[in-house]
Amino acid sequence: MFRGFSTATMRPYDGILRASSLIAVVSCLVLYGCEADTQSPAAAAPAPKVILIIGDGMDDHQITIARNYLVGYNGRLRLDDMPERSSVQVQTVAEDDPAVPVYVADSANSATAMSAGIVTSTGRIATTAKTDRDVTTIMELAIAAGFGTGIVTTSSVTDATPASFIAHVSERLCEAPTRMVRTNERIPSFSTDCSADFKTRGGRGSIAEQIAASQLDVVLGGGAQYFAEVAENETATTVREIAASNGYRVIGTEHELASLPPGGKVLGLFARGTMPVQWRGAGDAAAALVARQDDGRPQLPEPFMCEPNPAFAGTPRLSEMARAALQRLDDGRSFMLMIESASIDKQSHLRRPCGHIGELAQLDETLGLVLDYAREHPETLVLVTADHGQAATLVPQTSVLAPLKAASAGYFARLRTREGAVMGVNYATNDSLLQEDHTGVQVPLFASGLDTRDLPAMVPQTDIFRISAEHLRLIE
Ligand SMILES: [Zn+2]
Q1: How many angstroms separate the CA atoms of 385 and 146, rounded?
Q2: Could you tell me the pLDDT band of residue 190, with boundaries at 50, 70 and 90?
Q3: Ligand 1 centroid vs 107 CA: distance in angstroms?
Q4: Torsion angles phi and psi, residue 288, rounded to 5
Q5: Any catalytic annotation for residue 21?
Q6: Residue 53 Cα, ligand 1 centroid: separation in angstroms?
Q7: Which residue among 20, 107, 334, 341 is the active-site one?
Q8: Model confidence at 452, in pLDDT bands (50, 70, 90)?
Q9: 319 contacts 339 by C-beta, under 8 angstroms
């Protein structure tokens, strides 16, 4: 439920933010909504823009593994040529006692740090820990200021990262009307209770309903299943139909994306859930537990290379979605665009190295497109970062210290690289048969277009919000 700004987690600039968002709304009226004073210097200056690219789970292990495979260990990704580089301290607090830190994040609380500038607890979508207050996001500030806004992701658009930029709900799994209150006996942490967020109880409804009701200009990704549901308190009207009545052109194919007519809001839903990834291991290979020979020595798995994932056919590339978003938002106004490569994380959870390498390649390809745009629009700030660390670790193929006896703990893959070597990747955050966990490592931040400040060597994750909002002059 919307209860204004948090006081429990308020940061020094929150007061400035409230005042300046009003200033931004007023200046919007002056600059864009009314007959603009075209003689004023402010009106003549190019409108600042921010493109925030998030590699979900894209820590330095992920980047190094991808670099070695994609361009060789002497090679350079586009990321590597970004002019500024910093590190981000990922911050999470306990739900029961927000004064207590939690050292490993999830995508909901870490995206909320970046979207709204507050530290909250895992699973929360732009709401405060314990007190469950909605916190205004940078997209909402940008909308209020009359700026363009866009969200592009390879995940469901209702997933934690994109959701945290526009929706407010106490639990990330409340993606659609039927998912607001559910019991999962097999995995209790996947149970949800967002009953306080029902519209009939004064809340904003599920994440899909909040996106459908939003004023975002561009929303592109997966998650069609959540919009196919009947909306809360309706007998037959789906969330998708509500989006359409709110002015969204709803599309679902690569062809529709490529042939979008200009103007108007667009909601692109290109998969039922998460969009397919572009690569998989040859023959669908993934990491495996290391077997032991009769004499106890480790039996290393066969090395493999990556191959195109057949399920990716017909799926829009992340760069194609980003291009469509930029074309739509490039109307002379300021804009805030968030682009996420989501399955770096999801494929690492599943111990599939080719999956996360391919999705990091999608991010790097998209960064090339974004930097081309920024070269033509030098007022554009480009930030690339991750939300949290992931399980994949670059390790020796065989133990250097005990080569005949020791094997990688957990799941292990050997990737044959294009430069004729073999790279060991292991996943050992837990002993689950299903999925790995995140890690609590600091994550990288790359920047281009920060012309008025130096980037410190380390920033808290909430500074992603502050840096973006300051560039757009939404805060001072
Ligand atoms: Zn994850």
Answers
A1: 26
A2: confident
A3: 6
A4: -140, 160
A5: no
A6: 16
A7: 107
A8: low
A9: no
Confidence class of residue 95 from pLDDT cuts 50, 70 and 90?
Answer: very high
Three-state SS for the chain is: CCCCCCCCCCCCCHHHHHHHHHHHHHHHHHHHHCCCCCCCHHHHCCCCEEEEEEECCCCHHHHHHHHHHHCCCCCCCCHHHCCEEEEEECCEECCCCCCCEECCCCHHHHHHHHHHCCCCCCCCECECCCCCCECCCHHHHHHHCCCEEEEEEEEECCCHHHHCCCCCECCCCCCCHHHCEECCCCCHHHCEECHHHCHHHCCCCCHHHHHHCCCCCEEEEECHHHHCCECCCCCCCEHHHHHHHCCEEEECCHHHHHCCCCCCEEEEECCCCCCCCCEEEHHHCCCEECEECCCCCEECCCCECEEECHHHCCCCCHHHHHHHHHHHHCCCCCEEEEEEECHHHHHHHCCCHHHHHHHHHHHHHHHHHHHHHHHHCCCEEEEEEECCECCCEEECCCCCCCCCCCCCCCEEEEEECCCCCEEEEEECCCCCCCCCCCECCCEEEEEECCCCCCCCCEEECHHHHHHHHHHCCCCC
Predicted confidence at residue 41, as pLDDT, reads 46
- Going by pLDDT thresholds of 50, 70 and 90, the confidence category of residue 412 is very high
* Ligand 1 geometric centre to CA of 387 (Å): 9
CA 407 to CA 160: how far, in whole Å? 35
Structure tokens, 365: 């390809």
Give the confidence band of 11 by pLDDT, cuts at 50, 70, 90.
very low
Contacts of residue 15, defined as CB under 8 A and 6 or more positions apart, other chains included, come to: none
CA angle 158, 164, 166 (to 5 degrees): 80
39 Cα: distance to centroid of ligand 1 (angstroms): 50
Is a pLDDT exceeding 50 seen at residue 219?
yes
- Mean pLDDT, the chain, integer: 90
Percent of the chain with pLDDT over 70: 90
CB-based burial of residue 160 (10 Å sphere; 0-12 exposed, 13-18 middle, 19+ buried)?
A: buried
- Determine the distance separating the centroid of ligand 1 and the alpha carbon of 388, expressed in angstroms: 8
Report helix angle 318-329 to 353-376, nearest 10.
Answer: 20
Q: What is the pTM assigned to this prediction?
A: 0.90
